[in-house]
Specification:
The chain is an alpha+beta fold and about 180 residues long. It is built from five helices and seven strands, in the order H-E-H-H-E-E-E-E-H-H-E-E. Helix 2 packs parallel to helix 5 and helix 4 packs across helix 5. The radius of gyration is 18 Å and the shape is elongated.
Length: about 180
């Protein structure tokens, strides 16, 4: 994840706040997982969806009125107060699977209340169900996956079609 102050990292770990992926990304993931399921195949997370960055919405779940101070430039800090409706969306390189995993844990502790959050929660639950259904299938990375060679120079082409994984979506240790 993107670096945050220690107290905010602790609040994140305690599920006092979370991030929600853009609904369009959730739809893309769902469509890809359904396609894989129909073909009885599985894929690594980066083969399902890969962008340089993803759009996320900040969701306060139990911040107890805390204000957010966010640097907008080297000289300017913006302050956001509850309900944080003016807090801008974040564009981060963090893969949606990690965010989905954390958000589902957070919603187990704090029920989503806004209609839009409930809809996104249901979409994430559907993705989680598809993940578990795909575990039984071998991993399909298309024609192969580019990986760095041992010497760190040229890239080698590695075919991973026959590779199987018990769970290509492991539970992240430190979300």
């Amino acid at each position: 994840m993107t670096p945050v102050r220690g107290d905010w990292a602790l609040m994140f770990s305690n599920h006092s706040w979370t991030l929600l992926p853009d609904p369009k990304i959730l739809l893309q993931i769902t469509q890809k997982l359904i396609s894989l399921k129909k073909r009885q195949r599985n894929a690594k997370p980066r083969a399902v969806i890969k962008h340089d960055e993803y759009e996320y919405t900040f969701i306060a779940l139990d911040l107890q009125g805390a204000q957010i101070a966010r640097e907008t430039s080297a000289e300017t800090t913006a302050t956001y107060a509850p309900p944080y409706s003016s807090f801008p969306n974040l564009f981060l390189p963090t893969h949606p699977y990690l965010v989905i995993h954390h958000a589902l844990q957070a919603f187990e502790k704090h029920d989503p209340s806004a209609e839009e959050h409930i809809r996104i929660h249901n979409d994430m639950l559907r993705i989680k169900k598809l993940w578990s259904e795909l575990e039984q299938f071998s991993v399909d990375d298309g024609d192969g996956l580019n990986v760095a060679s041992a010497n760190g120079g040229a890239r080698d082409r590695v075919n991973t079609r026959r590779h199987t994984m018990a769970n290509p979506y492991p539970t992240p240790r430190n979300v």
